[in-house]
């Protein structure tokens, strides 16, 4: 079924086969996704002043995956843009881990300090208590999280718009790179450039990186299950992760189904497609552990008894 996107893709790529253009666009969208991936979680941590929702073990193992990915890219002597992107991944991981450690340290120090909040004494005037209760009944106090949710609007609409923006940025970036000659299609049957020994070494690092990526989400899934909550996690962070892995794997498959090509790229396919299943588990946890809508106290109060 033809669509405006496919027609536009064909119009933007004269001289390219459809599979070459599709592989390039998917790869560019994946690249844009990875660039913006950690931004939602960084913003959420900053707004809440806390990083309690995200597992440090998750981030640490993910950093190991990015580090082995960088080592494999250098060993295989990949193009400078790929190596630069791998360096960016490691840097972004370091920034997020540093932010989490900072907030954990600050909040731990605050928790150790004795509370200075004045508690209500038993000798407080009863009239003051009644006035306070009446005031709270007329103007119920909302917790900061509830106020943030009410003022933020529909999160699914914002997340959808963000994802569409990333897709548009990735597609536009590919079109500009193709028209300017920066991006060129890779031959489908390209041989190993630097010899079989280097390819094997890079592939071993690729499998190791895939193992780290697959294992990284397990601590986060366990943490969510134990706490029965996904509070403090940015849903857009995992949506972008899902889209980045999907477009990355689809870009590889769109390029070629040659057996040798698929074998060479198998560790990266395992790492991208495998983590999509784990992201699906986290999405189910977001659904299962979503806060239930609070019921107003006035709606559940028993009606006053009337005198006969």
TrEMBL record:
Keywords: Membrane, Transmembrane, Transmembrane helix
UniProt-recorded name of the protein: PQ-loop-domain-containing protein
Bilayer-crossing regions: 27-44, 56-76, 82-103, 161-178, 198-216, 232-254
GO cellular component: lytic vacuole membrane
One example GO MF annotation: basic amino acid transmembrane transporter activity
Family: Belongs to the laat-1 family.
Keyword Transmembrane: yes
Gene3D superfamilies recorded: 1.20.1280.290
Primary location class: membrane
Superkingdom of the source species: Eukaryota
């Amino acid at each position: 079924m033809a669509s405006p996107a496919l027609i536009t893709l064909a119009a933007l790529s004269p001289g390219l086969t459809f599979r070459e253009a599709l592989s390039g666009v998917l790869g560019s969208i994946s690249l844009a996704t990875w660039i913006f991936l950690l931004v939602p979680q960084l913003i959420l941590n900053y707004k809440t002043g806390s990083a309690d929702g995200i597992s440090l073990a998750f981030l640490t193992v993910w950093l190991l995956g990015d580090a082995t990915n960088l080592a494999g890219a250098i060993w295989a002597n990949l193009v400078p843009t790929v190596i630069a992107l791998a360096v960016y991944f490691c840097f972004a991981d370091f920034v997020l881990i540093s932010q989490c450690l900072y907030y954990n340290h600050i909040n731990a120090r605050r928790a150790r300090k004795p509370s200075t909040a004045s508690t209500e004494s038993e000798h407080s005037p009863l009239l003051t208590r009644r006035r306070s209760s009446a005031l709270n009944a007329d103007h119920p106090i909302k917790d900061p999280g509830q106020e943030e949710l009410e003022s933020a609007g529909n999160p699914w609409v914002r997340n959808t718009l963000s994802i569409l923006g990333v897709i548009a940025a990735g597609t536009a970036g590919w079109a500009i790179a193709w028209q300017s000659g920066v991006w060129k299609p890779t031959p489908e049957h390209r041989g190993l450039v630097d010899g079989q020994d280097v390819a094997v070494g890079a592939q071993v690092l690729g499998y190791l990186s895939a193992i780290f990526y697959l294992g990284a989400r397990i601590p986060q899934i366990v943490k969510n299950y134990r706490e029965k909550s996904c509070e403090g996690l940015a849903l857009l962070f995992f949506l972008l992760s899902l889209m980045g892995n999907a477009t990355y794997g689809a870009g590889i498959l769109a390029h070629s189904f040659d057996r040798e090509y698929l074998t060479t790229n198998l560790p990266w396919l395992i790492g991208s497609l495998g983590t999509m299943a784990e992201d699906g588990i986290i999405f189910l946890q977001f659904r299962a552990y979503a806060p239930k809508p609070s019921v107003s106290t006035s709606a559940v109060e028993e009606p006053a008894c009337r005198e006969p």
